Amino acid sequence: RGAGSPRTRTPSGAGGCGSQMAARYDRAITVFSPDGHLFQVEYAQEAVKKGSTAVGIRGKDIVVLGVEKKSVAKLQEERTVRKICALDDHVCMAFAGLTADARIVINRARVECQSHKLTVEDPVTVEYITRFIATLKQRYTQSNGRRPFGISALIVGFDYDGTPRLYQTDPSGTYQAWKANAIGRSAKTVREFLEKNYTEEAIATDNDTIKLAIKALLEVVQSGGKNIELAIIRRNQALKLLEAKEIESFVTEIEKEKEEETEKKKPKKT
């Protein structure tokens, strides 16, 4: 095109063109914006922040997953609304974000667990299945005609040498190992609580680890144990979902401990 062509480009900063340019980049998954953002991936992370809060804690002989339970319709079957799912006998996942997207990821991960067992005659390690899920998510950020998965996941379990593991993945396809972490709505508040309260003493026993997970959720969940769903895996044992009565008894214990602490702090009358 000649130098005198009337269709010369205006710099993105000129006038109102900056916002128009940004709008172009957030429609395409595979195109970076000039300042290095993949907007669709960032929007998927925003979808995660609107999901139910989930917390994972790695103890010494136990791993615990807890999620905020949304209230269900009066006539709805409660068992069909689950945010915690088993991927294999020794691996379990909780998610925050779009439930339909999570269903696809869970089904693919379950097939991979069985396929791995058939091929190499050993169960998957927790890191292997986490890496598989992260790779699947990353693939959906790098090809046209798709959108990223709108979920983050906490994946817990035991390797066959008996080591407890906790991993987190996000929509971009990254994953990290954690001692304790939270995802979903109010994850920042829960993470700050865990940073202050996660110590060797706090996870000394299985019950202490379960209590720490409940305390973390109670920071953001209203009306106590009724709105908490809890799953545990102990070494060499399958996933166990705690009954509402068991959760309530833990909540009662926590409340008693709080009252005792408050009593101790009160100045004694002379």
Radius of gyration: 23 Å
Q: Compute the separation of the termini in Å.
A: 94 Å
Largest sheet: 5 strands, antiparallel
Mean pLDDT: 88
What is the tally of beta strands? 10
Structural class by SSE content:
alpha+beta
Bin the helical content: 25-40%
Which residue ranges are poorly predicted, with pLDDT under 50 across at least 5 consecutive positions?
1-16
Assign an overall shape. Answer: globular
Provide the succession of SSEs. HHEEEEHHEEEEHHEEH
- The tally of helices reads 7
Q: Could you characterize what this model shows?
A:
The protein is an alpha+beta fold. 38% of the residues lie in helices and 20% in strands. It has helices at residues 17-25, 39-49, 99-120, 126-139, 187-197, 206-218, 244-265; strands spanning 54-58, 62-68, 84-88, 91-97, 151-158, 164-169, 175-177, 180-183, 228-234, 240-241. The strands form two sheets. Strands 8-1-2-9-10 form a five-stranded antiparallel β-sheet. It has a five-stranded antiparallel β-sheet with strand order 3-4-5-6-7. Helix 3 packs across helix 4 (126-139) and helix 6 (206-218) packs across helix 7 (244-265). The radius of gyration is 23 Å and the shape is globular. The N and C termini lie far apart (94 Å). Mean pLDDT is 88; it is low at 1-16.
Question: Which key terms come to mind for this protein?
Answer:
38% helix, 7 helices, disordered N terminus, alpha+beta
Question: Layout of SSEs?
Answer:
Elements: H1 17-25, H2 39-49, E1 54-58, E2 62-68, E3 84-88, E4 91-97, H3 99-120, H4 126-139, E5 151-158, E6 164-169, E7 175-177, E8 180-183, H5 187-197, H6 206-218, E9 228-234, E10 240-241, H7 244-265
Antiparallel strand pairs: 1-2, 1-8, 2-9, 3-4, 4-5, 5-6, 6-7, 9-10
Helix pairs in contact: 3-4, 6-7
